[in-house]
């Protein structure tokens, strides 16, 4: 078999395999996750900038949502978000400038600081949680409470599977 006919036969085989995937495109897990992420981000940005804060950026939300009430170290925040310390530093600088967070001395280690939500940041997170809660309620009503919980449980299992692979 010549190189070109082998290549052509292999191409046909790959095209056939791809055609099978494309027949069920709506059930493509990676496509669905990507689409939901983009659609959710678009929805969230419209809601958050209109109802919470016009200066809000979607990239702020994971950082703000992981800070909590008792403060957190930069290292712990970076680990929980699976981001580099460089990315963390850049985002913290921006969040400080926008006055979403404040730094306070760490009572357990005088050499370090803890990250806390500022009053403005706390109000922003609570308002954001309310808006997200409203969307979750819409999902539950659309899907049904039990099916929505099953969906959430399945997503948590998948997330934990990947987290345990670290």
Topology:
Layout: H1 3-23, H2 29-51, H3 60-65, H4 74-81, H5 85-97, E1 101-106, E2 109-117, H6 119-143, H7 145-164
Helix pairs in contact: 2-6, 4-5, 6-7
Name the CATH homologous superfamily of the domain at 52-164: Winged helix-like DNA-binding domain superfamily/Winged helix DNA-binding domain
What CATH architecture label of the domain at 52-164 applies?
Orthogonal Bundle
Could you give the order of the helices and strands?
Answer: HHHHHEEHH
Q: What's the shape?
A: extended
> Uncertain segments of ≥5 residues (pLDDT<50)?
none
Tell me the number of strands. 2
Largest sheet: 2 strands, antiparallel
Q: Given this structure, which CATH class of the domain at 52-164 is correct?
A: Mainly Alpha
Strand order of the largest sheet: 1-2
Give the class from helix and strand content and strand pairing: mainly alpha
Figure out the total of helices. Answer: 7
Highlighted features:
166 residues; mainly alpha; Arc Repressor Mutant, subunit A; two-stranded antiparallel ribbon; 7 helices; 2 strands; 70% helix; extended
